[in-house]
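Milestone M4 deliverable, item 7.
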Amino acid sequence: MHYYSYISLFLYFAVMLAIGLFAYRKSTANVSDYLLGGRKVSPQVTALSAGASDMSGWMLMGLPGAMFTVGLDIIWVAFGLLVGAFLNYLYVAPKLRGFTEFFDDALTIPDFFAKRFNKPDSSIRLISATVIIIFFTLYTSSGLVAGGKLFESSFGLDYQLGLLVTASIVVAYTVLGGFLAVSLTDFVQGCIMFVALVLVPVVAFFNFDSLADLNQAGFSTIAGFDQFIANATILGVISSMAWGLGYFGQPHIIVRFMAVRSVSDIKTTRRIGMSWMSVTLIGALATGFTGVAYINKFNVSLTDPETIFIYFSQVLFHPLISGFLLAAILAAIMSTISSQLLVSSSSLTEDALKRFSKKEFTQSQLVVYGRVCVALVALVAAGLAWDASNSILSLVSNAWAGFGAAFGPLVLFSLYWKSLTHRAAIAGMLSGAATVLIWIYLPVLENEQTLSSVMYEIVPGFIVSSLTIVLVSLFDSKQTENYRALYQSAEQKMQETY
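Output delivered:
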């Protein structure tokens, strides 16, 4: 690899660490600053931070690679994500921003669930924090897999060494600057990802004589649009588009809404966020398709389809630009890892240590413990990612489904249903998570296949969780009036303020 590329990567790392140092000086005096940036984040930073933390390494590696294995069917996933993100901005973002402020300034998702029922030390806090820690550790490992593959493919480094380099850099700036560092680095990383996902497919296209030449090479190994439509089944389309359901329950995304300056900023945030997402998703799909066509036309050997973006960056561009494009992959990976580490850390400190320890902690002590927890979660995730054969997309899909089913229905009912009860919230969360795990791991079909081979696990998980919440709330009607009064009080405060 040319030294110009090393220069680009070095500059990228330097900028990330500089942002971490800046945030360390500005917003780590107390827990609110460290976990939510003092609720003063601009809509521009919020939008790109939400997008970058959402579209991790799977966008530049997993999604283009999926074009090789499942063909145009991956478009249904992308479309489902667009719809889900838009609905998340429209229905979850404004109410969650207001409710978390007026439910006694809730700083985390488990904190909001507990204060929603006026039970600050209840079991729902510990259970939801446990779910976050388990699934985010798995989710973080997918990002480290992507980092390891990047350094192995681009630098010829050992996979495990690349994994450790990725983890070290992202832990450094997250530990230093907390939420503000994560948000500002996400903003920069989102800009890098945007440019890269426009540049790569456009430059790759110019290696073909025409659009017809590109289509001929691409569709020689994957089904064309006519077959794509003809082969679509109701079950298959629902399963693919159901990825969009996951947005309602992703703590590392919806926590961005809690930190934005005001409810009135959500509209601007939505416009910026959806524009960014639309362009980058199209760019990722285009990268995958041009990759299939390029491999076929020029008879190139590519052992791992998930590295097609890396391959393009190395063969199509000047080394200085190659370094920038590799930085885009790191940006995608690190933006998500840092968000997940911070949310996991907040659950360990704010929702577990602080609430269930008999000891009184100062604000500075909690910030220190939060930093230690960031490193601990990263260490466990690195252990899970140590096997280089792990698939980025499969790891992401499992964690995405787990959060979507466990938290998605609960978030929506918490924001929109006055009659939701505390017992129903716990039952819904546990039933959703359990359904996903059963769907993924229990071999009940022929040849020891699991139910996830038939339908994406988020669909049954979301349905079971929703039904459980409704049924348990109806049977638990004695508690309804108290919870209605709490809900109406917070809603009235939000209306008066905004």
